[in-house]
Amino acid sequence: MSMIVDMLPLRVRYSDTDQMGTFYNSRPLEWFECARTELIRSKMGMSYAELEAKGFYLPVVEAHLEFHSGARYDDLLEITSKASFSSRARLHFDMLVTHSGSGKVCVRGFTVHAFTNRQGRPVRPPEWFCELFEAAALRNTAPPAES
Amino acid sequence: MSMIVDMLPLRVRYSDTDQMGTFYNSRPLEWFECARTELIRSKMGMSYAELEAKGFYLPVVEAHLEFHSGARYDDLLEITSKASFSSRARLHFDMLVTHSGSGKVCVRGFTVHAFTNRQGRPVRPPEWFCELFEAAALRNTAPPAES
Amino acid sequence: MSMIVDMLPLRVRYSDTDQMGTFYNSRPLEWFECARTELIRSKMGMSYAELEAKGFYLPVVEAHLEFHSGARYDDLLEITSKASFSSRARLHFDMLVTHSGSGKVCVRGFTVHAFTNRQGRPVRPPEWFCELFEAAALRNTAPPAES
Amino acid sequence: MSMIVDMLPLRVRYSDTDQMGTFYNSRPLEWFECARTELIRSKMGMSYAELEAKGFYLPVVEAHLEFHSGARYDDLLEITSKASFSSRARLHFDMLVTHSGSGKVCVRGFTVHAFTNRQGRPVRPPEWFCELFEAAALRNTAPPAES
């Protein structure tokens, strides 16, 4: 299965915290979105904004979160995302949030995305997107060239 | 000056709090929006959604906040809003957030709104809106009928 | 299995929307929190704030969301929550968000909560909480009295 | 007057947008917080988290926002912050949000912060903080060394 892997460093904002002293439980979904945005930009060489400009949308149709440990304001986290097609028209992002340095797991989860048009109707992913995806997946898994 | 006054009771959500134990400083702007929505609905007999459906938008062009006291999760607040035209094409909402019961002031502030079209260009407020506003202001300040 | 059912009407705020025109995907987790708060208050006769004041916390340890249809600014939704113990020390909230009136399903999901102390360590749910829960569940499922 | 200037590049998140297609009006207050955090870290050589760990807090007591132009999802912005003491115990942050590249002004504003203890009572800023501030301000305004 073709897969693209990326990692985004991200700091916990004060606005992410709640009175329990850790991040509020909905914030990881916002972090996942940041990680998806950067995976598409840095690995596929396009931006999600361009995809939308061309009339294709990737709304979340399913999301899952498991909370393993807290994180405090200003903690540096690493959001690792693994993108793959779970079916012909569904993108799946496997997500892992860890504490930078210790590697301690903070959140595990995933999101599933449908391809839709501007009106929200399911459509086939455009051919050029699939080709960019495959090319990125190939680069991503290629063994590093000998130096 | 014509003015419409309304009050919205509102509870502090857990998601409103931050690690200081009070609401995060940006939340009152969301509460102000809730109060404007309900003022327009309950006093003007229309919804802001309808205004947008007719192609008129009221983006915030200026906002001010003064923080007088904190509020905790689940505290019941009262958001008092006073709407008036500060010029021919600017709506001004004077806002006061108090603790229900004690009346202790929590936040004072205001927002100023321009009338724009869908593209964000300034437009004159539609005549029917101004008429609804004036009628609401008259009802609002009328002395209560004798019983 | 003992279960408490509650329903919270809730309007989509402007701040809930994103540029796709529907609510942003993390917002239902905030709505779920509002629904839990009101279920505990209205059915168990206590507030979650009191539970925390007594040193017990109910952090989310798992959350799941399925997105079935969008909802627009100012839409009136109904958040139905069903609370039950999924184990001796885990509370499970089954969640359903529907459009008021049409009943159209908007979001399905659940959250699982652990009992912890202020330091985040797992603890047994206090006896008095379990008793309040059982009493509420009994009232909740009792056939309505004949009139 | 001693002043520290810093600039933070920041991308508009999808979660920052609303159905008008630009950022929701409360988001700049969250961006301001990110900029303050990084100014303190990069210019003063400490973190705001450390300040809180030592028992000092800097809650916002006043905030002002002027909205000059919109910004879309994924737009790259520059948040310029200028910190100064507006009185013996009040920190003032002058804020400017511009579009990266064009330099077009997006938002102007400011926040005013009091020094308080953990209980929220006003306190004098600690001497060591003032010294770090002065040293940073001196470095900040020093003419660049000849190369």
Q: How would a crystallographer describe the biggest sheet of chain A?
A: 5 strands, antiparallel
What's the overall average pLDDT of chain A, rounded?
95
Query: Any idea what the radius of gyration of chain A is?
Result: 16 Å
CATH homologous superfamily title of chain A: Hotdog Thioesterase
List the helices and strands and how they pair.
The structure is a homotetramer.
Chain A: E1 4-11, H1 27-44, H2 48-53, E2 60-67, E3 76-87, E4 90-99, E5 105-114, H3 127-141
Antiparallel strand pairs in A: 1-3, 2-5, 3-4, 4-5
Walk me through what this model shows.
The structure is a homotetramer of 147-residue chains. Chain A has a single domain (4-141), classed as Hotdog Thioesterase (Thiol Ester Dehydrase, Chain A, Roll), CATH 3.10.129.10. Chain A has helices at 27-44, 48-53, 127-141; strands at 4-11, 60-67, 76-87, 90-99, 105-114. Chain A is an alpha+beta fold. The longest helix of chain A is centred in the first third of the chain and has 18 residues, at 27-44. In chain A, a hairpin with a 2-residue loop joins strand 3 and strand 4. In chain A, 27% of the residues lie in helices and 33% in strands. Chain A has three helices and five strands. In chain A, strands 1-3-4-5-2 form a five-stranded antiparallel sheet. Chains A and C meet through helix 1 and strand 2 of A and helix 1 and strand 2 of C.
